[in-house]
Amino acid sequence: MAVTLEQPARARLITPEGRERPLSVTLRYSSADPLAAQITFPSEASLDGAEVTWIFARQLLEEGLRAPAGSGDVHIWPCGRARTVLEFHAPQGLALVQFDRAVLQRFLLRSYAVVGAGSEATGLDLDRNLARLLGGV
Question: Is the pTM for the entire model greater than 0.85?
Answer without folding.
Answer: no
